[in-house]
From TrEMBL:
Pathway: Cofactor biosynthesis; thiamine diphosphate biosynthesis; thiamine diphosphate from thiamine phosphate: step 1/1. It catalyses: thiamine phosphate + ATP = thiamine diphosphate + ADP. GO terms for molecular function: thiamine-phosphate kinase activity. Keywords: ATP-binding, Kinase, Magnesium, Metal-binding, Nucleotide-binding, Thiamine biosynthesis, Transferase. It comes from Microcosmobacter mediterraneus. The keyword Hydrolase does not apply. The gene is thiL. This is Thiamine-monophosphate kinase.
Length: 350
């Protein structure tokens, strides 16, 4: 679909493993004070002094987590880093280093990996994290990418999923549902392309939602903003699977209930119009669609004045006693039990 019309291809075997690692990582510079030794020895050496360290990892598999027929490799590299950094920020920590491991088949020429690493490089620069290591190996079929991210935070700053208290406000950053609807558009265009390969898709009217799917951002800005506003959420999680299941994670770990208001859920106009076009209920998408990488948090009501004028935050509900249960309050003011459908389940329904 998004094919390179002038491919010049170099077989990976031309470089050998070490030549390949050197070639792909030569432009990465170390910027973090805590990175004592990056790529090039048996292990990286890091010094975080007395700060607590947060560590998270994700494994992405071709045709399970990404589809190269509409995901350019550069975007894939960027997104692979972003999804990990999002987990670090969800702990209210600062991301500092990543490692990247890849398994790649000989179907991929050097130029494809250069694209992948260009995306990784762009993300490292944008989020100011160092690439300090990884592993490179062969695969018999597709591409596998595993990213591990490290971050730091003072122990009293780290925010877990288990701190939500009754009467806390449920707060969401940005808007949601876009990444899922972007995926629906890309899947549809892929089917059209299969039938007519000369048909280059015009995605301009879906620009925002397609970008939400192909080039998501992690909310580093929110971590900085919370510090500036002197707000420490009582709990926080990143929205990778849809807010319904994320809210339930917070409720379960915090032993609380909640009320989520349908009419408060922030949706971009493009999400609403695309839902109408696909004849899908936008609230279903908003609460079950995944991969938006926004932050969902609970804050004490005392902190409400600090966030209320800020357009980055929307109060979408509040926390209750556990015995009250977990409900979505619809526009018609009926309470429906919240279920963790998740976006995979949503896909299976079709
Ligand atoms: P070892 O044989 O000890 O595992 P490698 O030869 O795999 O070492 O790696 C050499 C160096 O290159 C190490 O610093 C390793 O972390 C780094 N490295 C290997 N593969 C990658 C990769 N895909 N991206 C970034 N760094 C890598
Ligand atoms: Mg190795």
């Amino acid at each position: 679909m998004l094919e390179d019309k002038n491919p010049k291809k170099t077989a990976l075997s031309k470089l050998g493993e070490f030549g390949l690692i050197d070639h792909l990582t030569q432009n990465f510079k170390i910027n973090q004070e805590s990175s004592i030794k990056g790529i090039g020895d048996d292990a990286a050496v890091l010094n975080f002094n007395n700060a607590q360290t947060v560590l998270t990892t994700d494994l992405l598999i071709e045709n399970v987590h990404f589809d190269l027929s509409y995901m350019p490799l550069k975007h894939l590299g960027y997104k692979a880093v972003v999804v990990n950094l999002s987990d670090v920020y969800a702990m209210n920590a600062k991301a500092t280093q990543i490692t990247v491991s890849i398994a790649v088949s000989n179907r991929f020429p050097l130029e494809a990996l250069e694209d992948l690493y260009e995306g990784i490089y762009t993300a490292c620069k944008h989020y100011n994290v160092d690439l300090v290591g990884g592993d490179t190996t062969s695969s018999t079929t597709g591409l596998l990418i595993s990213v591990t991210a490290l971050g730091i935070a003072e122990s009293d700053k780290i925010v877990y999923r288990n701190g939500a208290k009754p009467n806390d406000l449920l707060v969401l950053t940005g808007d949601i549902g876009g990444a899922f609807m972007g995926l629906q558009v890309l899947e549809r265009e892929k089917e059209v392309f299969k039938v007519n390969p000369n048909n280059q898709p015009d995605l301009s009217m879906y620009a925002y939602i397609v970008e939400r799917q192909l080039k998501p951002e992690a909310r580093k800005d929110i971590i900085d903003l919370l510090e500036q506003l002197q707000v420490k959420p009582t709990s926080m999680i990143d929205v990778s699977d849809g807010i319904s299941s994320e809210i339930l994670h917070i409720c379960k770990q915090s032993k609380v209930g909640c009320e989520l208001y349908e009419n408060k859920i922030p949706l971009d106009p493009q999400v609403i119009s695309t839902c109408e076009e696909f004849d899908i209920d936008s609230t279903t998408i908003a609460i079950n669609g995944g991969e938006d990488y926004e932050l969902l948090m609970t804050i004490s009501q005392d902190d409400y004045p600090k966030i209320k004028a800020n357009p980055n935050f929307t109060v979408i509900g509040y926390i209750t006693e556990e015995a009250k249960g977990k409900h979505l309050i619809t526009r018609a003011e009926t309470a429906i039990p919240l279920k963790a459908q998740g976006w995979n389940a949503l896909n299976d329904q079709e």
